[in-house]
Amino acid sequence: MIALAIYMVKKGERLTSKEKEFIEEPICSYRREKLTEHELSQVKKEIKKALRYIKPYNGPSRIWFAYQNSLTNGCRRLTKIISQLPVCLETTELIVKLLINLDRKLSTGGVDDSDGTVGSFIEATVDLLINYSKVDKNCLKAFKILKDKETSFGWEERLVKLLSL
Question: What pLDDT shows up at residue 16?
Answer without folding.
Answer: 63
